[in-house]
Write a structure and sequence with these properties.
It contains 14 helices and no strands. With about 280 residues, it is mainly alpha-helical.
C-alpha cells in the first residue's frame, strides 16, 4: 500500500467526507495494517484481531469528518484504536485471562513427552515457528491491558513518548516509566523460561504436539507465518538498541499484513446500503 504524507491524506479525507467513495476506501486501506497489528498484539489471536479491526475501521469511517489535521492521521487512528481495545471484552483472553505465573507453571509442568504425534504431516519445524510466534504474541496477554498497550506502542510501533502519553492520557514521564516496567517484566520472563530468546529450558520444537493438543496452534490453519516483506517490517531490534540492552529480547515483534477478509469487509461495506448512512452522518 502506498504511503501518503499527512497533506495527501488531508486531501483524501476532505474528498472522502464530501462523498468520494474511492478516497474513503484509500484512506481506510492506508491504516488497515496499523489497526490490525495493534489489535493482534492487544488481543492475542488473528480471529479476534480481525473482528476488532473491523469495529475500529467503522469508527474511523464514521468519525472521519472530525479529523482536523492537528495531529498526524496515524496518531488520530491510534487514539481511536487504543480507546476501543483497552476495554474490549469480546476476545478469548478476556474470558480466560493469563498471568506470567500461570504461563510459567504451564511451561514447567506440562508433560509434553506424553502427547502423541498430532502434526498431521505438516513439517514440525514449520509448526515450531508458528508456536514461537504465537507464544510470544500470547505472552503479551500476561500484562494488564494498559501495560500491554504501552509495551506495544513503545516496542513495536516506536511511538514517541509525548504522542503516546497524549494517546493514553498520561504524562510522557509516566509513559516512559511504565514502558520500562512492562519491558522488564517481559524480558525477565523470557530470560527465565524461554530457550529461544532467553536462558530457559522451553523449546518450541519439543512443545509442538502439546500445543496442538491444547489448541494453541492448528496444523490446518497457520496464522503467524505470513509476515509482511522485510522492506516494510518494523525494525524493532535496531530501535531498541538505541534505548537499552533489552533489544534482542523483543525481536519476535513481527508485523503482519491484514487478512484479505479485512480488505473485503471494507469494500463490501462501501458497496452496501450502510455506506449511505455513514456518508451522510
Amino acid at each position: 500500500m502506498k504511503q501518503f504524507t499527512n497533506e495527501e491524506l488531508l486531501e483524501l479525507i476532505e474528498k472522502a467526507t464530501a462523498g468520494d467513495k474511492a478516497s474513503l476506501e484509500t484512506v481506510l486501506l492506508s491504516v488497515q495494517d496499523l489497526v490490525f497489528n495493534l489489535s493482534l498484539r492487544m488481543l492475542g489471536t488473528f480471529p479476534d484481531a480481525e473482528d476488532a479491526a473491523q469495529d475500529i475501521l467503522l469508527k474511523v469511517m464514521t468519525h472521519l469528518s472530525s479529523f482536523k489535521g492537528k495531529s498526524s492521521f496515524s496518531t488520530w487512528v491510534f487514539r481511536i484504536a487504543v480507546n476501543h481495545l483497552k476495554d474490549y471484552k469480546k476476545h478469548m483472553f478476556a474470558q480466560f485471562p493469563l498471568s506470567f505465573e500461570f504461563y510459567g507453571d504451564d511451561i514447567r509442568n506440562a508433560r509434553t513427552e506424553d502427547v502423541p504425534d498430532l502434526t498431521q504431516n505438516v513439517e514440525k519445524s514449520i509448526l515450531a515457528e508458528e508456536l514461537k510466534l504465537s507464544c510470544t504474541n500470547v505472552m503479551l496477554q500476561c500484562l494488564d491491558a494498559e501495560s500491554r498497550c504501552i509495551f506495544i506502542l513503545g516496542t513495536m510501533f516506536r511511538v514517541d513518548s509525548q504522542i503516546a502519553g497524549d494517546i493514553l492520557g498520561i504524562t510522557p514521564e509516566a509513559y516512559r516509566k511504565r514502558l520500562s516496567r512492562a519491558r522488564k517484566k517481559m524480558a525477565d520472563f523470557l530470560t527465565e523460561y524461554c530457550g529461544e530468546y532467553g536462558k530457559g529450558n522451553c523449546r518450541c520444537m519439543d512443545r509442538v504436539n502439546y500445543a496442538i493438543q491444547s489448541r494453541r496452534i492448528h496444523p490446518a490453519q497457520l496464522y503467524f507465518q505470513p509476515a509482511v516483506p522485510v522492506q516494510v517490517m518494523v525494525d524493532v531490534k535496531e530501535a531498541m538498541e538505541e534505548i537499552d540492552d533489552l533489544s534482542q529480547k523483543f525481536s519476535f515483534c513481527r508485523t503482519y499484513q491484514s487478512p484479505e477478509n479485512l480488505k473485503q469487509f471494507i469494500q463490501k461495506f462501501l458497496d452496501g446500503a450502510s455506506y449511505s448512512v455513514v456518508g451522510n452522518s
